[in-house]
Amino acid sequence: MYAAEIKQKNFIVFRTTTVSNFAVGFRPGSTDLVIVPLDEKSGTITPGTPLAITDANRASVKKRDLQGRFVVKTTEGQTFRLSILPSVPKVLAAGYQLPVEQKAEYEAFTTLRDALTAA
Questions:
Q1: pTM as predicted
Q2: Which of 90, 78, 79, 83 minimizes the C-alpha distance to 106?
Q3: 80: pLDDT confidence band, cut at 50, 70 and 90?
Q4: What whole-number distance in Å separates Cα of residue 10 and Cα of residue 33?
Q5: Rounded to an integer, what distance in angstroms lies between the CA atom of residue 70 and that of residue 113?
Q6: Is the CB of residue 58 less than 8 Å from the CB of residue 72?
Q7: Dihedral-angle region of residue 70 (phi above 0 means left; psi in -120 to 50 means alpha; beta otherwise)
C-alpha cells in the first residue's frame, strides 16, 4: 500500500516542504508492518531499504495525529507520520504524492490500524 509523509518547516523568509514516499506492507490478521522508502525520478520508482516493525520494536502507534496521519514509532527512535488515502488522483498527485488507487488495500489497512491502536 502507498503512503506519504509530508514535512513542512517554516522559516522567517521561506517555508520548505519535504515529501517522502513509502510502500507499507502487512498481512491481514498480523500486527507486523514493513515500511519501504520509495524514491521517484522521472517516472522511475526505486525502493530503499525495508524496515520491519514488529511487536518487538514497535514503541507506539497513534491512529491519527492533528493532521490526520497514522503515526508509528519504533524503539530505535524512528517515527513515521504517514498519510494513507484510499485513492490519490492525479490532481492531488501534483501536490507531491504519487497517483494510486488502493481502496481494497486501504480497507484491509484500517483493520490493522484499528487493531494496533485498540490497546
A1: 0.78
A2: 83
A3: very high
A4: 32
A5: 8
A6: yes
A7: beta
Determine the pLDDT at residue 69.
Answer: 86
67: Cα separation from own chain's centroid: 13
Do residues 39 and 46 make contact, with C-beta atoms less than 8 angstroms apart?
yes
Classify residue 117 as exposed, middle or buried by CB count within 10 Å of its CB (0-12, 13-18, 19+): middle
Q: Confirm if 40 and 21 have CB atoms less than 8 A apart.
A: yes
- Cβ pair 5, 105 in contact under 8 A: no
pLDDT value of residue 91: 65
Percent of the chain with pLDDT over 90: 39
Q: SS3 of 26, please?
A: strand
